[in-house]
Amino acid sequence: MIFPDIASFPGNLHLVLVLRPTSFFHRTVTDIGFRFSQEDFMLKMPVVMLSSVTDLLKYINENQLTSEFGGTLDYCHSDWIVLRTAIESFAVTVKDVAHLLQAFGTELAETAMPSECDAIQSLLESHNEKYKKLKEAIRSLSREGRHLLASLETTTTTTTSTTTTRDNDDPHWDVHLDWETVQRLLTQLRDMELAFDGYFEKHIQKLDQYLQLLTYEQSFQESCLSRVTSQQSELSTTVNTLAQAEQALQQLDTLETLAQEVMSRAQMVVLHGHQLSAGHHYATALIMQRCNELRHHCDSLDAALGNKRCRLLQAQTWCDEAAYMLANQLVEKFQSKEGAQTALKAIESFLEGSPSIMTSGPEVLALEYEAVITPHLQMIQNRQAGLRKLADKHVRPVQLVAPRAENPPRSKSPIFSPKHGTECVFVCVCARHSHVMRELIETERIYVEELLSVLLGYKAEMENPHLAALLPPVLHAKRGVLFGNMPDIYNFHSSLFLQDLEGCLDTPEGVGLCFLARKENFQMYECYCQNKPRSDALWRQFSDCAFFQECQKKLGHKLGLDSYLLKPVQRLTKYQLLLKELLKHSTDCEGSSELQGALLAMLDLLKSVNDSMHQIAITGYEGDICELGRVLMQGSFSVWISHKKVPTRMKELARFKPMQRHLFLYESVLLFCKKREEHGDSCDKTPSYGFKHCIKMTAVGITENVKGDPRKFEIWYSGREEVYVVQAPSVVVKMSWLSELRRILTNQQKLLRGQRWNRLIRTRPVMRPKKDVPSWFCGTLRHWTSLHSHRLGLTIRTPSAPPHSLCVVNVCQAQKLWEYCIVFPAFHSADMSGSGSLFGNFLRHVLLALLNGRSV
């Protein structure tokens, strides 16, 4: 033992116990060394010399001593060294990982943002790669720590199980402090990992948003609005010749087409900007500034092009009205003075009411409108000249002249010829058709813009953090109920239907095909209309919300959001009106049949929407009412009910007043409901229908006429066990219901008849002959059926194979070809002779039974 080394012990020493060796040599060396250093020990701490292990037990409990010192402590120094080495290595590795995380965080913070999208993408990939490596190091270190912790827990468990077999005073090496150390290091590692993940997630989000911002800026620069605006400014409408005017109009059309494409892309950029802003982008202010700039440029460009287009359309509309006026003036009225003067005054009055751009008279019209106005103005001037001649001719004084031979009639002026009148009518019809077509496309554009303004100005603003304080949480959670599937409707019209209609501007005959091709897409309006009552209720609850007022102020709308939520319903009804107007001016023209089909499709859609709105108001029906399918007919009727097998009560005999029931007709059932009006304000009153009972259409029959009232008809059930006398509001309603009921019952009858025949074929045994049948048998059968085919409606053919199959009888019944193979047993030739033979009677029985629908 070298006592000066004790000074390097890290703790404070209070007592030193020295156990002398047992051998003489070692004991002598220990005494000599102790004498030389005794003074140092006496100054610092007491030292006690012990002669044996027994003396050591007087100072230290045997539970704290190992077996070599006479104690009972279970301790292995080599295991302790291995464990301490692992713990210290784990602690050093945790410290190193902390330094790596700190260095990587500093690198992320000091990284300069590049100005190119490709560089940002490379930077993202590089940072993600480093992040994955550090995460793998942290996970590996965590697994090492958990493994070390499990080893300590295993040691503790083994010790516990060992000490239970000993006395309670037998100690073991305590590893609780080491377990706490490892647990603390694992906690520190976990906290570092969480902090690092959060920091890196924010960094990646910042890089993603920066990349989105660069992409948005690039889209903003590529919007090409400035180029289109400059082209619009350079386009001049001041022309000197007709060719220049036509060229200017063509350039305006081309520029408008290009402007629509550019503004559509700009609107998509604006929508993308609002989506970025709704996603809490760090550059929201800059993005919204760009959005406002794009909106301003789009509005300015659209206003400039619209101004030029409006002036030309104003002149064109005036020309259309002029052609219509000329076409309506009958040539027969020009034969009298009064008729000619009246027509001339009408033309002069029409010229006085010319547009403001023409108030200076036809002589000084701007040359830029020459291409549009000149042909129609020439027609008016020609008509004026002809009417003046007629008026002057009628007011000449009567003169006596010598009789002369009658001159052959001169040809009429081309302006009053029937051919010219037909051309005028044709021009008027084409003008009206073109006007309706332009109205359809222009209103469609306005409709798409209004939908976009609602989605951007209201729905997207619900995600704006600056307006979060004005928006109730309940309303934010139910924004899907408020707007329904309006985003789907906008996507359909902006990306598909509007483009289809614009493609038909030069070919109006294709409008009907546009509606028919998108017939299935229009079914989304049914979903929107079914959600409309819930949307209206939510709007009435929050209509006074400050959020809606702020959004309406920003958009500059004069009407509230509820008016714009009604736009899809109004637009759906507008389509059928425009199609009726187009069909009115397209009779016997190309595409008129498609227009008629489109009109019927829109009317059917309106009926389906109306019926579905009534269907969702049915209450008390057990089961899923949607499984019944589509509502075919629905309406309110007066109903009397009588039961055949149930005795009539006095109360029912006294019921002269009918029950009011609302009937819903499906393909398989007929529902009887009672209409109820909900209590509440006028705007809140919505009808509901309480379910009463239903009858299956498979057991229903009808009687079309009932004595006493032409509006009544009968619906009876199960062989007239229940009879419902139904009185319709009018004869027209009755006939429409009877037509639909007849169609359903006819289909039911065909279906049941087919099932009955199929069941008969499956269950009827086939009889096989005992031997081959001679060929003359089939000939006799063919001869017999040919004689009676005109009465029975039968045909017969002989199959080629197999030889045992004698014939196939085809029974034509109810426009269905039912084919049955009849195999007869063998007969003797004697049985075939005579009209009353066995063969004749049997064959007659079989064929008549098949014809009458009986089993053979």
The CATH top-level class label of the domain at 438-616: Mainly Alpha
Oligomer: single chain
Strand order of the largest sheet: 3-7-6-5-4-10-9-8
The tally of beta strands, per DSSP, is: 13
For the record, the CATH architecture of the domain at 438-616 stands as: Up-down Bundle
- β-strand percent reads 5-15%
Mean pLDDT: 72
So how many helices? 25
Percent helix:
55-70%
- Major beta sheet, specifics? 8 strands, mixed
* CATH fold label of the domain at 438-616: Dbl Homology Domain, Chain A
Alpha-beta content class: alpha+beta
Question: Going by CATH, what is the homologous superfamily of the domain at 438-616?
Answer: Dbl homology (DH) domain
InterPro entries: CRAL-TRIO_dom, DBL_dom_sf, DH_dom, GDS_CDC24_CS, PH-like_dom_sf, PH_domain, RhoGEF_Guanine_NuclExch_SF, SOS1_NGEF_PH
Domain DH: 432-612
Pfam family, one: Spectrin_5
Domain PH: 630-746
